[in-house]
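Justification of computing resources. Each target in the renewal requires a structure prediction run like the one illustrated here; the chain below, 235 residues long, is used simply to show the kind of job we budget for.
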Amino acid sequence: MSRDDGRLVADIRAALRAAADPIKAGPMQAYMKSEMPFLGVQKPTRARALRPALQANLLGCRTDWEAAIRELWDDAAYREERYAATDVAQARAYTEWSRDPASLPLYDHLIVTGAWWDHVDDIAIRLVGRVLRHDPVATAPLIRAWSRDSDRWRRRTSVICQIGSGEEIDVELLRECVLANIDDPDFFLRKGIGWALRQHAKLDPAWVRTFVSIHHDQLSPLSRREALKNIFTGA
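Resulting structure tokens:
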């Protein structure tokens, strides 16, 4: 690590420990079913606590940015340090680096090692989705490969990464990723499929209604229910 990213990491760790609430730590760990302990710093408190450290330690190169993320993530003693790693990744000051396809190997590492919905969903939607929208030609082939990967968290990422894309959504890519996982019994994939379809229904309810009708017998009841939750199916 360089002096700049090392100072940022040290300041972030200090800020998290200063904001720790032991009373909240146990329930947070239990809710997340986490082997890694919590400090008890909830998201709004974490955002306030980290703001001074992020503002005072702006990183001048992409190498330092990635090094800080990996240090916070790989050497985390508390789960909030991993949340802080993704906060650094998503910080507005580093938008150009975070949306570069060159960052996808980093995000893949976070997805596979994070291996739980709280980490994966944030990375999928706020980071992988950002890259996909910025450079779909370079990114879509990897998303398609992830949709058929042996790792369920890569597969979930492929399904949900376009949530929030609005008019920029690649509907054909969404269709391919859902169909690649449509009969998987995994709860997180079934829930993810329903979530992705429900979100797209805000933009194109007719497409989602038709998709669910065509693939009714392949989709799990959970996926169907989630997909149609906000659609008046009698219309």
